[in-house]
Design a protein that fits this description.
The chain is mainly beta. Helix content is about 15%, strand content about 40%. Strand 1 (about 25-35) and strand 2 form a beta hairpin.
Length: about 210
Protein backbone atom coordinates (compact mmCIF):
# COMPACT_ATOMS: atom_id res chain seq x y z
CA UNK A 1 0.00 0.00 0.00
CA UNK A 2 2.84 2.37 0.89
CA UNK A 3 4.48 1.62 -2.48
CA UNK A 4 1.17 2.34 -4.25
CA UNK A 5 0.78 5.72 -2.48
CA UNK A 6 4.34 6.67 -3.43
CA UNK A 7 3.70 5.76 -7.07
CA UNK A 8 0.50 7.81 -7.17
CA UNK A 9 2.27 10.79 -5.55
CA UNK A 10 5.10 10.66 -8.09
CA UNK A 11 2.55 10.47 -10.93
CA UNK A 12 0.73 13.56 -9.62
CA UNK A 13 3.99 15.51 -9.29
CA UNK A 14 5.04 14.45 -12.79
CA UNK A 15 1.63 15.37 -14.24
CA UNK A 16 1.68 18.88 -12.81
CA UNK A 17 5.31 19.38 -13.82
CA UNK A 18 4.53 18.49 -17.44
CA UNK A 19 1.48 20.75 -17.53
CA UNK A 20 3.25 23.69 -15.90
CA UNK A 21 6.08 23.34 -18.42
CA UNK A 22 3.54 23.41 -21.25
CA UNK A 23 2.14 26.64 -19.84
CA UNK A 24 5.41 28.54 -19.41
CA UNK A 25 6.08 31.75 -21.28
CA UNK A 26 8.67 31.82 -24.03
CA UNK A 27 9.83 33.80 -27.02
CA UNK A 28 11.48 32.93 -30.31
CA UNK A 29 15.15 33.40 -31.15
CA UNK A 30 15.97 33.60 -34.85
CA UNK A 31 19.35 32.74 -36.34
CA UNK A 32 19.97 32.88 -40.08
CA UNK A 33 21.50 29.63 -41.31
CA UNK A 34 21.74 30.42 -44.99
CA UNK A 35 19.82 32.40 -47.61
CA UNK A 36 16.05 32.34 -47.01
CA UNK A 37 16.37 29.72 -44.25
CA UNK A 38 16.29 30.58 -40.54
CA UNK A 39 16.87 28.44 -37.48
CA UNK A 40 14.32 29.02 -34.71
CA UNK A 41 14.85 28.44 -30.99
CA UNK A 42 12.42 28.72 -28.10
CA UNK A 43 13.78 30.78 -25.20
CA UNK A 44 12.37 30.64 -21.67
CA UNK A 45 11.87 33.53 -19.25
CA UNK A 46 15.45 33.14 -17.98
CA UNK A 47 16.81 33.59 -21.50
CA UNK A 48 17.82 29.96 -21.96
CA UNK A 49 17.20 27.88 -25.09
CA UNK A 50 15.01 24.90 -24.24
CA UNK A 51 13.94 23.79 -27.73
CA UNK A 52 15.42 23.92 -31.23
CA UNK A 53 12.77 23.82 -33.94
CA UNK A 54 13.06 21.66 -37.04
CA UNK A 55 14.10 23.96 -39.93
CA UNK A 56 12.36 21.73 -42.47
CA UNK A 57 9.01 22.16 -40.67
CA UNK A 58 8.74 25.86 -39.84
CA UNK A 59 8.76 28.18 -42.84
CA UNK A 60 8.17 31.68 -41.49
CA UNK A 61 7.84 33.68 -38.27
CA UNK A 62 6.48 37.22 -38.56
CA UNK A 63 4.60 37.76 -35.31
CA UNK A 64 5.38 40.16 -32.48
CA UNK A 65 8.13 38.49 -30.44
CA UNK A 66 7.64 39.03 -26.72
CA UNK A 67 7.33 36.46 -23.93
CA UNK A 68 4.02 34.65 -24.42
CA UNK A 69 2.43 31.25 -23.84
CA UNK A 70 2.43 30.59 -27.59
CA UNK A 71 4.22 31.58 -30.80
CA UNK A 72 2.74 32.02 -34.26
CA UNK A 73 4.43 30.32 -37.22
CA UNK A 74 3.85 29.41 -40.81
CA UNK A 75 4.24 25.63 -40.86
CA UNK A 76 4.99 23.72 -44.03
CA UNK A 77 2.02 21.60 -45.06
CA UNK A 78 -0.33 23.53 -42.78
CA UNK A 79 -2.61 26.27 -44.18
CA UNK A 80 -2.32 29.79 -42.79
CA UNK A 81 -0.79 30.61 -39.41
CA UNK A 82 -0.45 28.17 -36.52
CA UNK A 83 -0.05 29.01 -32.82
CA UNK A 84 2.16 26.50 -30.99
CA UNK A 85 2.91 26.06 -27.30
CA UNK A 86 6.31 25.31 -25.77
CA UNK A 87 5.91 21.62 -26.65
CA UNK A 88 5.18 22.47 -30.32
CA UNK A 89 1.53 21.48 -29.97
CA UNK A 90 -0.70 23.41 -32.39
CA UNK A 91 -3.26 25.24 -30.27
CA UNK A 92 -5.28 27.00 -32.99
CA UNK A 93 -5.05 28.79 -36.34
CA UNK A 94 -4.44 32.53 -36.26
CA UNK A 95 -6.40 35.00 -38.36
CA UNK A 96 -4.49 36.87 -41.09
CA UNK A 97 -5.36 40.51 -40.44
CA UNK A 98 -4.45 42.13 -43.79
CA UNK A 99 -5.94 40.90 -47.04
CA UNK A 100 -3.28 39.97 -49.60
CA UNK A 101 -0.36 40.29 -47.17
CA UNK A 102 1.19 37.82 -44.69
CA UNK A 103 0.09 39.48 -41.46
CA UNK A 104 -0.83 37.19 -38.53
CA UNK A 105 -2.97 38.83 -35.88
CA UNK A 106 -1.36 39.95 -32.61
CA UNK A 107 -2.55 40.04 -29.02
CA UNK A 108 -4.62 43.18 -28.41
CA UNK A 109 -6.19 43.63 -24.99
CA UNK A 110 -4.86 40.11 -24.26
CA UNK A 111 -6.91 38.61 -27.08
CA UNK A 112 -5.91 37.34 -30.53
CA UNK A 113 -8.24 36.52 -33.41
CA UNK A 114 -8.30 32.87 -34.44
CA UNK A 115 -9.93 31.11 -37.39
CA UNK A 116 -11.38 27.64 -37.94
CA UNK A 117 -11.58 25.38 -41.00
CA UNK A 118 -14.84 27.09 -42.05
CA UNK A 119 -13.16 30.53 -41.98
CA UNK A 120 -15.17 31.61 -38.93
CA UNK A 121 -13.35 33.91 -36.53
CA UNK A 122 -13.12 33.76 -32.73
CA UNK A 123 -10.65 34.73 -30.01
CA UNK A 124 -8.00 33.15 -27.78
CA UNK A 125 -6.37 34.74 -24.75
CA UNK A 126 -2.74 35.34 -23.84
CA UNK A 127 -2.50 31.85 -22.30
CA UNK A 128 -3.41 30.21 -25.60
CA UNK A 129 -6.92 29.31 -24.43
CA UNK A 130 -9.89 29.69 -26.78
CA UNK A 131 -12.24 32.07 -24.98
CA UNK A 132 -14.70 32.97 -27.78
CA UNK A 133 -15.28 30.11 -30.19
CA UNK A 134 -15.02 30.86 -33.94
CA UNK A 135 -18.45 32.02 -35.13
CA UNK A 136 -18.04 35.39 -36.87
CA UNK A 137 -17.70 36.05 -40.59
CA UNK A 138 -15.63 39.17 -39.91
CA UNK A 139 -14.75 40.95 -36.67
CA UNK A 140 -12.37 43.63 -35.44
CA UNK A 141 -9.88 43.37 -32.61
CA UNK A 142 -11.09 44.54 -29.22
CA UNK A 143 -11.02 48.15 -28.07
CA UNK A 144 -12.18 48.98 -24.55
CA UNK A 145 -13.49 45.40 -24.20
CA UNK A 146 -15.73 45.62 -27.27
CA UNK A 147 -15.40 44.43 -30.88
CA UNK A 148 -17.46 45.11 -34.01
CA UNK A 149 -18.56 42.20 -36.20
CA UNK A 150 -20.31 41.82 -39.55
CA UNK A 151 -23.02 39.41 -40.64
CA UNK A 152 -24.30 38.39 -44.09
CA UNK A 153 -21.01 39.40 -45.66
CA UNK A 154 -19.66 39.02 -49.19
CA UNK A 155 -16.49 39.84 -51.06
CA UNK A 156 -16.48 42.69 -53.57
CA UNK A 157 -13.47 42.49 -55.85
CA UNK A 158 -11.86 45.82 -56.66
CA UNK A 159 -11.77 45.19 -60.42
CA UNK A 160 -15.29 43.72 -60.41
CA UNK A 161 -14.03 40.27 -61.31
CA UNK A 162 -12.03 37.45 -59.80
CA UNK A 163 -8.86 36.45 -61.62
CA UNK A 164 -7.91 32.79 -61.72
CA UNK A 165 -4.25 33.76 -61.46
CA UNK A 166 -2.52 36.60 -59.66
CA UNK A 167 -3.49 38.66 -56.63
CA UNK A 168 -7.20 39.28 -56.02
CA UNK A 169 -7.90 42.46 -54.07
CA UNK A 170 -11.31 42.82 -52.50
CA UNK A 171 -13.32 44.52 -49.81
CA UNK A 172 -15.79 42.79 -47.51
CA UNK A 173 -19.29 44.24 -47.40
CA UNK A 174 -21.79 43.15 -44.75
CA UNK A 175 -25.57 43.68 -44.62
CA UNK A 176 -25.61 43.78 -40.81
CA UNK A 177 -23.19 44.81 -38.10
CA UNK A 178 -23.10 44.20 -34.40
CA UNK A 179 -21.14 44.61 -31.20
CA UNK A 180 -19.87 42.08 -28.65
CA UNK A 181 -18.28 42.38 -25.22
CA UNK A 182 -15.14 40.54 -24.09
CA UNK A 183 -17.22 37.52 -23.04
CA UNK A 184 -18.52 37.11 -26.59
CA UNK A 185 -22.02 38.29 -25.68
CA UNK A 186 -23.84 40.19 -28.45
CA UNK A 187 -24.67 43.69 -27.27
CA UNK A 188 -26.41 44.76 -30.46
CA UNK A 189 -26.99 43.52 -34.00
CA UNK A 190 -29.01 44.91 -36.85
CA UNK A 191 -29.13 46.88 -40.05
CA UNK A 192 -26.30 49.16 -38.95
CA UNK A 193 -23.24 50.17 -40.93
CA UNK A 194 -19.76 49.67 -39.57
CA UNK A 195 -19.33 53.44 -39.50
CA UNK A 196 -22.46 53.92 -37.39
CA UNK A 197 -21.33 51.49 -34.70
CA UNK A 198 -17.71 52.63 -34.71
CA UNK A 199 -18.85 56.25 -34.27
CA UNK A 200 -21.20 55.27 -31.47
CA UNK A 201 -18.44 53.62 -29.41
CA UNK A 202 -15.60 55.86 -30.64
CA UNK A 203 -13.81 52.87 -32.17
CA UNK A 204 -10.56 53.80 -33.92
CA UNK A 205 -8.93 51.81 -36.73
CA UNK A 206 -5.42 51.29 -35.40
Amino acid sequence: MKHLKTTILLFIISFFSINSFGQEKFRVKIKERYKAVNQYYLINEKGNVFRELDTSKYSIFLAENSLKHFAVFGIKGEPGWSAIDSNEKILFKVYNSVNGEPSPDNLIENKIRIIDKNNKIGFANEKGEIIIKPQFEIITSFQNNRAIFGKKCKKEYWDKEKHENGCNHYSIKCSEHGLINDKGEILKLGNYTFEEISKEINWKNE
